[in-house]
Specification:
This protein is mostly beta strands. The protein has no helices and 15 strands.
Length: 149
């Protein structure tokens, strides 16, 4: 199930067949003004493909890896982009919340698939700069943000 959320609106559609689909959508306000969002391409996996979520935290200061940013010397980095890449292609994107936590849902994984997680936020560099994930490691993908990049 792919889901689109913007403001108070949430739309969802379930694809019954595997494949790649392009979603185009528009909004009309109560005065008849229409806005169109850029098209989004999604891939619906076949039923044998496992679906995972990738999650972790981005903390400023020392991230001790316990999947929160509440320990001494840690602080959350909200609104950081977190890219899920397969090779050089961005497959999905997530953002950190006010606690520095992010989750990228609905990641399809076939045997042998591997991804790279890459954090990004203006004014920061990250340690590590990216992390490889495979079908056995999708949680606690944590990063430390360094101010002043």
């Amino acid at each position: 199930m792919e889901q689109i959320s913007t403001g108070d609106f949430v739309g969802a559609h379930k694809y019954s067949n595997p494949g790649t689909y392009t979603i185009s959508y528009s909004f009309k306000d109560s005065e008849g003004n229409k806005a169109m969002a850029p098209p989004v391409t999604v891939t619906a996996p076949d039923g044998t493909t496992a679906i995972y979520s990738v999650s972790g935290t981005i903390c400023a200061g020392a991230n001790n890896g316990d999947n929160d940013c509440t320990d001494a010397g840690e602080g959350p980095v909200p609104n950081a982009a977190v890219y899920l890449k397969k090779g050089q292609t961005i497959v999905k994107m997530g953002k950190t919340d006010s606690t520095g936590y992010y989750v990228i849902p609905n990641v399809p994984t076939n045997s042998g698939d591997s991804y790279t997680i890459v954090p990004s936020k203006n004014g920061y560099s990250f340690t590590p700069s990216s992390r490889a994930v495979s079908s056995t490691s999708y949680t606690n993908i944590n990063f430390t943000a360094i101010v002043g990049w």
